[in-house]
Every structure is written in structure tokens, then in C-alpha cells.
Amino acid sequence: MATDAGTETRTIGPVAAPSIDRFRPLLGLVVPAALVVVWHVVVATGVIAAYQLPTPLRVAETLYGLAASGELWGHVAITLQRVVLGAGLGIAVGVVFGTATGLSRTASDLLDPLLQSLKNIPSLAWVPLFLLWFGIGETAKVLLIAVGAFFPVYLNLSTGIAAVDEELLEVAEVYDLGRIESLRRVVFPAALPDLLVGIRGGVGLAWMFVVAAELIAASQGIGFLLSDGRTLARPDIIVGSILLFAFLGNCSDVAVKEVRDRVVGR
Q1: Which pLDDT does position 257 carry in this prediction?
Q2: What pLDDT shows up at residue 3?
Q3: Interatomic CA distance for residues 184 and 81, integer angstroms
Q4: Is residue 25 exposed (0-12), middle (13-18) or buried (19+ Cβ within 10 Å)?
Q5: Looking at residue 26, what is its pLDDT?
């Protein structure tokens, strides 16, 4: 600020506001934490009976006991294995069909109406058919999960390829790129964001379908643990299993989202 002649002039800059960026990742914990508090209150005050909904502490104790005995890790491992195999298979087949229908109008006219119809079938509706075809082994479970992962990948990639900018295709023609080279250097990179969105959705649906898959005469898995809790009338096991699905599904979603952001950012 300016003062009388002969005195020192000082400029006071704006005071930097404290940044909240470092706390931003914690914002996602606010609502879950609030829900846990509400959950505890409604059970502790008797609004909901404890035999219908156990307290958060009771659920945590149950999960800790299962983890300490080693039982929980076996269920988690087999469920993760089924999700990885099923999602991987569904994504691979989705890429094949999405590429075919995205590149060829004829293939789209032939296949898309059928696939759009199959997409609307609920996961549990597939269970009796898969039991009949594949029995009660791992094949039926993995294929059911693959069905869930397939459709988001197929739909997003097909749409993304069909929507590739004509100017990009003209550039490929100018440089006289062959069919394979055009796909590798122009079409697939342009459709990559759509594919990654589809993969994210496919992984999410894989976690939803694994519940139905593990109801197919399973003897291990988080879905089996959920069913076992129902049979034993143990709401702490039921709620704990649901929370495990939520946690693991969210972890996989964050991982896929991180990959998508890094790849698209390049």
C-alpha cells in the first residue's frame, strides 16, 4: 500500500487459502461413516431389532473371527478367482463381438437385436439353464459371471467404434494404412475410452453376477457365506458378506478407473 513520501512502500499479497485437495480423497468416506453412525443408532435405540440388523460392532467382530480362523480368506480367494476368470472371459468375448458389430453394419444388423434381447435377462434367470448345461461345477459359475461382464463391454465398444470420426478414417486412407494397421493405429485408440468405460461396467456387473453364480450349489465363496448366514439365521454373517461384496467391488472399480484415467490421459 502507498504511504507518505519518504516512507517505505509495502505490498501485501493475497493470503493463500488452505488447499483442500489433499483431503479430497477422504470425502468419499463421509457418507459411509454417517450411515454407520445412523445404523448403530437405529439398532441401539431399538428402532430395528438386533436380530434383524446387528450392530456394526457385531458385524466387525464376526468378520474378524472368520478372518482369524482363516475361513474368510478361503471364501474371498475363491470369489476373487471366479470374478477374475469370468470377467476376463466376458471382456474378451465382448471385445470380439463389439469390434465386429462396430466395424460392420451387416454384423450389427444380424447380431445386435439378439444381444440386446439377451441383455435384459436377469442373472438368476440363467441359473437353471446353466445348471442343466454345465452342472454344478466351476464352469457354470465362471460362464454366468462372463455373461454379466460381456454386455457392457460389447455395447460400449460397438458404439465407440461406430462413432469414430470420419476424419480420422480419412487420414488413415491418406497414409495408405492397411485394414489391420488402421484398426491398430486409428480405430482402436479412438474407441479406447469407450472400451474402458465398458470394462468398468463389466467388472461391476461381474460382482453382481457372482452372487447368483455362487448360489449354484457352491461350498465356498462370499455368496456361499451369504447363503449360509441365511440358513443359520445369522444376520451378522449376511450383513458382513454384503459389506465384503461392496468393499471388494469398490476396490476393483477404483483400480479399473485408475487404469482408465492413466490410459486416456496419455
Answers
A1: 87
A2: 47
A3: 31
A4: exposed
A5: 73
Phi, psi at 256, each rounded to 5°: -65, -40
Please give the span between the terminal C-alpha atoms of the chain, in angstroms, as a whole number: 46
Q: What is the pLDDT of residue 1?
A: 46
In angstroms, the CA 183 to CA 190 distance is 10
Q: Which residues of the chain have pLDDT under 50?
A: 1-9, 11-13, 15-17
Q: What is the pLDDT of residue 174?
A: 61
In whole angstroms, what is the distance from residue 86 CA to residue 80 CA? 10
Cβ(215)–Cβ(241) below 8 Å: no
Q: Give me the domains of the chain, ranges plus CATH numbers.
A: 54-60+72-265 (1.10.3720.10)
pLDDT at 76: 94
